[in-house]
Structures are given as structure tokens and as C-alpha cells.
Amino acid sequence: MRIWFNHKDTNMKTRVNTFIIIAVGIVLTACHRQPMSVNSPDGRLTLHFALTDAGMPTYEVYQDDHAVLECSALGLRAVTEQGDTIGNLDWQCEGTETNSKDETWQTVWGEERTIRDYHNQLTVHLRHDMLRMDIVFRVFNDGFALRYAFPEQSCNELTIIDEYTSYAFAEEPQIWSIPWRTEYYEALFTKSPLHLKDTMNSPITLEMADGSYAFLHEAAVTDFPCQNLYARQDASLGTYLTPWMREDKVIDDKAYIQTPFATPWRFMILTRTLPEMVASRIMLNLNEPCQIEDTSWIRPMKFIGIWWNMHMREWTWRQGPQHGATTEHMKQYIDFAADHHIQGVLAEGWNLGWEGYEGINNDRFSFVTPYPDYDIDYLSAYAQERGVQIVCHHETSGRANEYEADLDTAYQYMQSYGMHAVKTGYVAPIITTMDGHQINRGQSGVRHYRKVIETAARYHVMIDNHEPAMPSGLQRTWPNLMTQEGIRGQEWNAWSSDGGSPCSHVCTLPYTRMMAGPADYTPGVFAFENPVIPGTRVHSTLCNQLALFVVLYSPLQMACDRIENYAAHPEEFRFVEEVPCDWEQSHLLDGQIGEYVVMARQDRHSTDWYVGAITNEEARDITIDMSFLGEGEWVAEVYRDGDECDWETNPYATIIETIHLSAPCAPMTVHLATGGGCAIRFVKL
Ligand code: NOJ
Ligand code: CA
Question: Global pTM?
Fold first, then answer.
């Protein structure tokens, strides 16, 4: 059994930002076959646990006395060290415990400064012969969560081969999802009734039969495979854990664990409205508190970079006449960043090893050897002089094992040049070299990504991870994990043979993928013509691109276009210069999945507010409720689609205007063109 990494591996101290703990009480109860229940603090959600006559653990969930989930199976299928297989029958209940928590904690960065963790918990102690397992339930006002925990016991090592957690919906929902094993999760979310779905990646978003919403995902995936969900004909969902591979073949084993051990949390947000769903912080609350004692070096920032030109096939990552990451180009990017209040510059293709990229790459990347035409000594000194940070890049082509061997030297090298942020990448066929070929989101991959995050933290490095395992809120514990890909990002609009993502895509993301955490979508294309792939382009107006800086949250936010294109639109670029990427509070004001989004966020470091509004293929008038501004007088700098603007033929038409507002601010109506948007900065007078 290979176990080279476990929960106790950390040399960082725990820091808990706990301000109020109102009630933490523990009640011990004997267990029987009658259901045991736990309610949300407001009493509107109820979860019942019961063992069936056959000893199968099950649960049901009610919202305002209506069944949301009917009797649904729980449990894991595990093989013990002795070779006994234990499934989800013949369990006995040995007792239960309940407790409650009401705690408010502070984020290091995020969509809001403070988060309240308010829930009731029920722990059920189960036994199957010699094996003991707890099922822990938490019920919040806006949803519930559950996990399996194995206390320390003589049965020490287990191989998990299946998970039985299911969700038997009382009424069939509609589901937004992408298919299981979508390469790097880069796909368009589509909606259909549950029974027409197949196996899906977690997360999924559900439109419930009664018009309410649900979001199903997992939290705190630190040493376990990512979950997937599959549809059954009876309107229920089952769990399928990502498997291990041996000799390039998928095997039955899903996870190797050692007790004590707790699985990731499975959670479901249940809310009446989309603004409530988007505001839910269940996922972050289920992750462990911050493990990094001194977080002063973790600073959200915007960056530009030597990047879009490679995706548009004008420059290359490898050395040659069109090499992108040259000293000259980088100096220009550093100057542009310094002149326009952009804190960072990324250089992809700065290092040795790109010769085979995009083919079968047999060269090993070096993370300490710049190409000869990239003068890192000069550039580091120059960037420092101009007050700009260089964002490093580590493409691994999926060779995680080699990267692990190089980690310390790679991060020492970054540290020696004063680099505090790195974009990592794992482009390879769907399997990557992690303990032999493995699926990125299997247990092996999850362990690898975690090792990178923890190593980076020791060297004070912030991570932007591409081709990740699906995010699950680990940034609460390791806030140097700033952002990740795992999304069909802007790059698809450069080279996708399907023409680029439809306008509806970015109107779907805030309700689906973004619910799992920040994403490096890379907004900010300012030139829409694509000479490389005829017919492919960004399906967006210029104002839509501006609004994405508010709509799609990322604490490392890349403005992705070439600096020449920004220089051509200085007025519009002012919004990119000013918009922050660290927020005091955030509110979805209005929206529909796949149709439109109106998001308001307040800057964490000033009194400014920002609004980003986007629409799909349909032009529409939106009315923005201004009550979030509260008291006072405001100047609104509005960037909106001009007359006759549309994404296909006239995406650049922009009207920039300044409006004075004073409380109580009347609602503002704005016209969004097809594929259009509106971005507003509110400055308090
Ligand atoms: C894929 C990443 O998503 C992209 O941003 C990057 O440019 C390439 N890999 C090269 O590393
Ligand atoms: Ca990618």
C-alpha cells in the first residue's frame, strides 16, 4: 500500500480567526433504529438519519417540511488489511452526538472579509464487526454536508473501492453539468433533466421542481479522489470516485487511507433564490482554518503577460525567431504594467524545455534555466526598480513526479529572484505522470497538488494552478492557493475550432464552476478579430470583457490581451487599471443561469463599489437596484455598450459616462447589447 503523505504532514502552525463562539455544546445519545434528526439553526432544513433493517445507513432531507431528498443510501465500500470487504449493510449504531457552532472568521482575501459558520452537527457512531466509522452531518440554514470519519483503531489501513452516497430527489430536478472526465474540466455546462444525464463532474447546479436551487459539490479534498456523480433512472444521483490506475489501466481501488481519517465533505446548498445560492459559504466553512501563520506576503493582484500572443500563434513558447519571452518583450510588458497600475507580469516560455511542447514532450523542463534571450538577472532588477512583480511559470506537461523532484530547487530559485507568484500547468493527455500514469483528479493527483501548495507556502509563493483537480475550498487552509483553471477559459476563444465559447458561457459560470472557487478565466480581450482560426472569436463586446473583471472572481486576475491592444483603448483600459480583485463584500443583484448576471462588489481597501453586468446572446435592459450603495453621494463611472453595439459586428462601441448619485439612489436601467455588458465604478464623494 502506498501512503506517502497524510494529514499530519505540516510544519505550519494553525491560526484560527475566531471572533465569536456563541454555542458549542455536546449531547450524547444512545442510538436505535428510529431516525435521528438534526435541524438547521433557523429550523427550516431537517436531516434524518436512520439504519435500515439490513443495517444500511440512510438519510432524508426536508426543507420547510417538504421532502427534498427521500431515503438515500450512505456508506463506503472498503477492503481491510486482512482482505475483508465491508459494504454498506450490517452496520450497527453505537451512539450519536450533537453539537452546534456559531463562529465568524476572517478571510485572508476573498469575495468578502468575514464569513459566518452557523450550523448544527450530528455525529453517528457506527460499527461493523471490528471496523468503526462515524458519519458526521452538518446542517446550515442554506444547506447540509456529510462526511465519513474513521477513528484511530486496530483496523488501521483501508482501501476504499466505492462510495454509496446518493441523493434520491423527491422530484426530478434539472441539472447543469459537464461530463465526467472532461479534459481538465474545460467544457460548456449544459442543462437537462436528471434522467437524461450520464456521469458528471462535480460540481453540479440544480434547478429544483419547485423553482428553488441547489448546488452539489465536495469540500476539503486533501487526500482522497475527487467525486463524480452519475444519474439513475429513478431521479437519484450516485457517487463515483475517481479511480487509481496501474499500468495505464483504471483499477477498482479509489483511495488508500490510514486511520484516523476523514473523507472530504459532500455538501448541498439548498436555497430559494440564486443570490442566496451564490452567497452561500458552506464550502469554505467546511475547510480547515488557515495553516499559514504569517500571511502578509499573500497579496491579491492583477497581472498582464506574455501569453495571448502564443495562443494567437504570433509568438512561440520555444526559442526561435518568434520567441515571446525575450528580454525586450518582457521589458515592454514591465513598463506597461508599471505605467498602468498593474502589479504583475507573467512570462510563459522563459525556461528551457519547450521544444517538444504541444507534441509528445520528451524534454524535461528546467525550472531554473532561462532561455539565453531572457535575461532574468536584468529583468528581475528592472521589474523591482519599476515596482512590478514577475509571475513565474512552471509548465510540467503533466510530469508531476519530475516536478516534485524539482520543487525545492524551483522555489528556491524563485525566491532568490524575488518572485512570489507562479502559474503551474499540467498539459498532457488526460492522464498525467503521477505514480505512473494517473488521472489528475484521483487521489494521487490530489496529493501532488497539495504537496505543491504546501511547498510553495514555505517559500512564500502564491499559486495559480492550471489543469487542476476541481477546487474544493482549500484556499481557506492554504490561502497561497490563489486561483486555478479547471474551466473553459478565454484561451478557447483563440484556438477552438468550434468558433469560441457562446455568449451564454460566461453567464453560466457564476452559478456553476465559480461556485467551487476562484478561476483563472483571464478576462480582458480588447481585439476580437482572430486571423488564425477563421470563424473563431471572442463572443463578447468590449464592455462585456470589462464586466468580467467583476463577475468572474479571481484574486490573481489576469488581463490577458497584448499591451498594444490595451494601448489602443486607453479610456476603456482605465477600468481594468482601477478594478480591484479583493473584496469587502459581494452580492449577486440579479441574474438567471446561462442568461445574465448582475454582480456588485465592494473593494476591500476603499469605500468604492463596482458592478459588472453581462448578458448572453440576447440583448436586454437590466435595472440595477442601487440600495447596496447606502448613504452618501456617489460618482458613477459607467462603461456601457454603445448604440448599435453587438458582439458579432460591432463589439467596440462603448459609451463612457460619469453620473452623480445621491442617496436614496434610484434604480439604474442599462441596455446590454447581444453578448454585451456594463461595468461601473462607484466612488464616494
Ligand atoms: C495551458 C494553460 O491553461 C495555458 O494558460 C498555458 O498558456 C499553456 N497551458 C502553456 O502552459
Ligand atoms: Ca487550459
Answer: 0.94
